[in-house]
Design goal:
It is elongated and about 65 Å long. It starts with a helix and ends with a helix. It has two domains: 131 residues, Response regulator (Rossmann fold, 3-Layer(aba) Sandwich), CATH 3.40.50; 228 residues, Hypothetical protein af1432 (Orthogonal Bundle). The chain has a five-stranded parallel β-sheet with strand order 2-1-3-4-5, with helices on both faces. The longest helix has 22 residues. Helix 7 crosses helix 10, helix 8 runs antiparallel to helix 9 and helix 13 packs antiparallel against helix 14. With 364 residues, it is of the alpha/beta class. It is built from 17 helices and five strands.
């Protein structure tokens, strides 16, 4: 711990809100090596956070309806909306994770504590500055959208011209994208990217927003959130090789044009597989995000267990994004209507995963 203590910042300040004073002392000691920590009861969480507060750590019994409601009442105000918040889970069980994300968690940690791991999460989750200013979240959102746009340009303009796309191009964008959605909201992300004039760019950015928000909602660790963000950004890379006249056609595609469109998963997979440097799971998403569990998808007609979890998730957010986007030949579906359509797809989609997506879809 001594080596870590040498990295202490006097600027980061955390609020540790706990109903478990007997159990939170260990956590407070760990946090104090990288920040100033004020420990209070959840009933004493102030209506407005201090101006120089970097974030709040919540350590409560997530199975206690009383504790959950108390924290919800305290943190649901506008003053706390953009403040990073880390929740402590008693274990890795799904119930606690879902409760934490429903309360607005931007990250979670679990008992038993791993000091090194917690400190890494604190450094990534909470700014090392004079506090997180809620007024900054608009700039954070813009930075995230701009970073994602740069990737879209590299995919749809430079890649077809022979300029290689690298894994580093994706990695450079992902931090800003994750931060943008954590510190603003999925709704704000969709509103901002929804103004984009290029349909293909807009769709990829919608899918990325839904994928990251879904990953955060499920309580995925940050590494897994990054995996989803990367896969979502790249899932339609093959459309870079489809004629623009087809991609931007202001009307319903003909059968021949649909055949061309359906070549994009294979084209994208071949391009990046030949180039090298991309993880197999990302190539899997690029090739198979149009496969269905009942075997009626394309290009390989996979079914059931042949379709990986990351592909199943990407397929769900891809379809939802397509339904709620503006199209020249139809009005956008509401999020509720789009979700209803997906429920009616039955065995084509992972319905358990789809139901887990419900709060994300309907809350957007």
């Amino acid at each position: 711990m001594s080596a870590l203590a040498n990295k202490t910042s006097t600027k980061r300040r955390l609020l540790l809100a706990s109903d478990r004073s007997d159990q939170s002392s260990e956590l407070a000691s760990i946090l104090q090596s990288v920040s100033e920590v004020d420990t209070i009861l959840t009933s004493d969480i102030p209506e407005v956070p201090a101006r120089n507060l970097s974030g709040i750590v919540v350590d409560i019994n997530l199975r206690s309806a009383e504790s959950v409601q108390r924290v919800r009442n305290k943190l649901r105000g506008e003053a706390y909306r953009a403040l990073p918040r880390l929740f402590v889970l008693a274990d890795a069980l799904h119930h606690g994770s879902m409760q934490a994300w429903a309360l607005g968690a931007t990250d979670t940690i679990s008992r038993p504590f791993d000091a090194e791991g917690i400190l890494a999460r604190i450094r990534s989750s909470f700014p090392d500055s004079d506090g997180y200013d809620a007024t900054d979240h608009g700039q954070t959102l813009n930075n995230g959208v701009a970073a994602a746009h740069v990737v879209m340009v590299k995919i749809f303009e430079k890649l077809p011209a022979g300029v290689p796309l690298t894994m580093d191009d994706i990695v450079q964008a992902e931090n800003k994208i994750l931060k943008a959605i954590k510190h603003s909201s999925l709704r704000e992300w969709l509103t901002t990217v929804g103004c984009h004039h290029t349909d293909s760019y807009r769709h990829c950015l919608f899918v990325t927003g839904f994928a990251v928000a879904f990953a955060q909602h499920l309580g995925m660790r940050e590494d897994d959130q990054r995996r989803l963000a990367r896969a979502a950004l790249l899932h339609d890379v093959g459309k870079a090789y489809i004629p623009v006249a087809i991609l931007d056609k202001p009307g319903v595609l003909t059968v021949e044009e649909m055949v061309e469109i359906q070549k994009h998963p294979r084209l994208g997979f071949d391009a990046l597989a030949d180039q090298g440097g991309f993880p197999p799971e990302m190539l899997d998403v690029i090739l198979h995000h149009h496969e269905f569990l009942d075997g009626t998808g394309y290009p390989d007609g996979l079914s059931g267990n042949q379709i990986s979890d990351i592909v199943r998730l990407t397929t769900i957010v891809d379809i939802h994004a397509a339904l709620v986007e503006k199209r020249a030949y139809r009005l956008p579906f509401t999020h509720a209507k789009a979700f209803e359509v997906m429920e009616q797809m039955g065995g084509k989609l992972d319905q358990h995963l789809l139901q887990a997506f419900r709060p994300v879809a309907l809350g957007a």
